[in-house]
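Design a sequence for this backbone.
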């Protein structure tokens, strides 16, 4: 059963067709990757799904609901979380505080209750911290819990970005180039975490990625795009063998 359905998605900026006629579905429990050269429209597709951009045409359905007209701040509450290609964390807050910010959509108390620190607030706070501690353990961030983001290595900050998305408790997580800038060992860890997200957390993963070794290792299906348009979709092996993909993305062969 598909969790996400994207149909004829397009967005035009003036005369530029950044995304044009993209359709795909992501099944529940699937790891689905979008690949393509720089400027192909991959991150723009993410921005359309997470409602940063309003499409020129097309529809986006999540868990059976049409979310095309939803606002960006409504998406997390539906069960969609995302990371960003450029890390967007609070540099002068701790790892723990950044992860707790991922729980904001689950806050059910009001300002007065928070000020008085009523029992309901205390119960909610304990639950948020319990969920965040699970994420810290899952991503092996125990040693960094109380450290400021600004002083952390790039690879650790990348992991915290993933952790904040997981702290939301999503059904679908969008990973925008999770291996970008990481070492081979760190990329191997990301692969293990993606597999564990699906197996242990029951998550569905939609990923934009340039690292084909990671794509091959964790992806069930792949969509290749170029110039905002779909080229091929199938297993990683099928897509990489497609002549249009070889020409546009892998740089070998020529399209017929």
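Sequence:
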């Amino acid at each position: 059963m598909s969790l996400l359905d994207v149909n004829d998605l397009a967005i035009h900026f003036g005369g530029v067709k950044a995304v044009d006629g993209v359709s795909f579905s992501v099944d529940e429990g699937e790891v689905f990757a979008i690949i393509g050269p720089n400027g192909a429209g991959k991150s723009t597709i993410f921005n359309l799904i997470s409602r940063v951009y309003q499409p020129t045409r097309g529809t986006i359905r999540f868990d059976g609901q049409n979310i095309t007209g939803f606002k960006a701040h409504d998406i997390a509450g539906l069960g969609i979380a995302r990371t960003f290609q450029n890390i967007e964390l609070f540099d002068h807050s701790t790892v723990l505080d950044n992860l707790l910010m991922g729980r904001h959509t689950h806050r059910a108390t009001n300002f007065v209750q928070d000020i008085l620190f009523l029992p309901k607030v205390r119960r909610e706070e304990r639950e948020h911290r319990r969920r965040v501690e699970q994420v810290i353990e899952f991503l092996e961030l125990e040693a960094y819990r109380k450290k400021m983001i600004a002083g952390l290595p790039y690879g650790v900050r990348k992991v915290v970005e993933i952790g904040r998305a997981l702290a939301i408790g999503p059904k679908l997580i969008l990973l925008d180039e999770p291996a970008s800038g990481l070492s081979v060992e760190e990329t191997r860890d990301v692969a293990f975490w993606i597999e564990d997200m699906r197996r242990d957390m029951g998550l569905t993963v939609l990923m934009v990625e340039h690292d084909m070794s990671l794509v091959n290792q964790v992806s069930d299906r792949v969509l290749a795009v170029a110039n905002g348009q779909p080229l091929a979709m199938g297993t990683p092996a099928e897509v990489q063998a497609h002549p249009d993909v070889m020409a546009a993305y892998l740089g070998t062969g020529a399209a017929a």
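The domain at 1-79+170-256 is CATH 3.40.50.300 (Rossmann fold).
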